[in-house]
Amino acid sequence: MRLTVPSVGEGRIDLDTGEVGMLAAGGFLGAALAGTTMQIFDQVAMLLTGSLVGLGSVGGGWLATLVFGVVLAVPFGAVVSGSINGFVNRVIVLSSQSDALQRVLVPLLNRSALAVTTSALGAGYGLVVGVGVYLVAAPVWATLAGSVAVASLVVPCLVGVVASVVYGATLGVVYGLLLEA
Fold it and tell me: Would you say the pTM of this structure is higher than 0.90?
């Protein structure tokens, strides 16, 4: 069975059920680590996450984090499928032009080129998701709801962005490693 999703470029991307399962596993593990990051560094971030979907509790935040972690993994698969070749080519060109990058990247790429590449793409994806949710949607929601002063959300929102980067990098690493297996 194949899942067809819109791609970043032209056309559509087909993901088979194995790839969707790999994405779901990476999304769930990434979401668990993101949730743990929020739980440890600022529980208000977890409460905020739950509140954004109408579940105003820490448990609701965990539920929202885990569900959205799995759901948002599928678009990541479409982004990776549509852009990985260009990204790998850029990494190769950059590492050939800089001795410092060459010393850092070549050993990593020799061990697991796909996991390194998907991890970097995942971190970028997580940053975009985090900025969208915690720096755009959360302050707008707080303003419209009128229940929380936007200024009091600075630290929870920044923790949410960091947690989203943790989510994306973990999603990318797990997906890349499972693709290579």
Answer: no
Phi/psi of residue 147, each to 5°? Answer: -95, -15
Location of structure tokens 């970028």: 124
For residues 121 and 77, is the Cβ–Cβ distance under 8 A?
A: no
| Distance, CA of 165 to chain centre | 6
- pLDDT tier at 3, thresholds 50, 70, 90: low
Q: Is 57 left (phi over 0), alpha (psi -120 to 50) or beta?
A: beta
172 near 22, Cβ under 8 Å? no
69 neighbors 170 (Cβ within 8 angstroms): no
**Distance separating alpha carbons of residues 63 and 50, to the nearest angstrom:** 8
Does an H or E element contain 95, and which?
Answer: helix 73-97
pLDDT digits (tens, 9 = 90+) for 29-88: 999 999 999 999 998 889 888 888 888 889 999 999 999 999 999 999 988 877 777 777
**Contact, 80 vs 115, CB < 8 A?**
no
Q: Are 77 and 23 in contact (CB under 8 A)?
A: yes
Tokens of 107: 């050993």
Mean pLDDT computed over every residue of the chain: 85
